[in-house]
Design goal:
Length: about 290
């Protein structure tokens, strides 16, 4: 069964005669007659009662028309998807929590205003998970810490970011000894920031009283405010909790690397949606 057959059939039903349908479709009547016979043979039913110059739709034909019309209209809609200058598509983006919470909200609003035809899906994940989903083709673009060196991937700076050590306000001069008496709050090991913190602890011989995986910044800052522990937190989160600055202090310490956030995509991708998304988001970063 071909779409053209269904199109001819629908045109005859709507126009009433083969001759009128031929004029609408810019073809010869014999071509339509042939396609209708083929369709009837394929379905095993009679679609029209033929009376001299009249074609009357059979009950079976009405049922076929109902379904055929949906397919023909859907095909026409599909052909028109990219016939204008508007941007259309289904874009899947993954991002770190820090990007979603502190950098993207207003930028995404602008993107939605400028690209309303794009069906945008945003997925939060940790660094290593984002990279795997991108490589496997489940995501089109990710915002993660970088830059990333991978033969299949390309990257571009999105937002400046760095890790700061955040300790209770009472620790006016944090030392290895008093840090050892505190809890350390971290994310899971699929987070690259966690790997940076682990390396920093090992290289400085720091042994916190306990290492707790608490993947909630409000909870982390609440615990720090009570003097229970410390954490290594992105600078934009420190700025976000500035109203609570009388409960904590934050500083940069050697060994915690820059944690800039990058756009990352597959080198082989051919869709202009990726470039367009980056340009609109990046436009507000400069």
């Amino acid at each position: 069964m071909k779409l053209s057959q269904l199109g001819f059939f629908c045109a005859v039903v709507e126009c009433g005669t083969i001759a009128a349908a031929a004029v609408q479709l810019h073809c010869v009547p014999s071509n339509i007659t042939t396609r209708l016979r083929e369709l009837e043979n394929q379905l095993g039913v009679v679609l029209f009662n033929r009376e001299k110059n009249r074609l009357l739709v059979t009950p079976e034909g009405r049922l076929v028309y109902r379904n055929a019309k949906l397919l023909v209209d859907l095909a026409a809609e599909t052909r028109s998807l990219f016939s204008t200058d508007s941007i259309n598509g289904v874009l899947r983006v993954g991002a770190l929590d820090v990007a979603l919470a502190n950098h993207l909200p207003q930028r995404l609003v602008r993107y939605r205003l400028e690209a309303p035809g794009v069906e945008l899906h945003i997925r939060p994940e940790h660094s290593l998970r984002l990279e795997r989903l991108l490589i496997d083709g489940e995501l089109d673009l990710i915002l993660t810490d970088g830059p990333i060196e991978h033969p299949l991937l390309e990257s571009r700076l999105a937002f400046r970011e760095r890790l700061l050590r955040v300790v209770p306000k009472a620790f006016s001069s944090p030392t290895l000894e008093n840090l050892a008496g505190l809890e350390l709050y971290v994310f899971g090991r699929t987070c690259n920031y966690r790997l940076q913190v682990d390396n920093w602890l090992e290289s400085n011989g720091i042994h916190p009283r306990a290492i707790l995986e608490i993947e909630s910044y409000p909870s982390i800052f609440a615990c720090i405010a009570e003097g229970l522990g410390f954490a290594c937190v992105q600078e934009s989160y420190v700025d976000r909790y500035a109203s609570q600055a009388d409960t904590f202090q934050a500083d940069y310490v050697p060994g915690l690397d820059s944690s800039d956030i990058y756009f990352v995509w597959r080198k082989s991708q051919q869709s202009p949606l990726i470039k367009n998304f980056i340009e609109i988001i990046d436009m507000q970063s400069n």
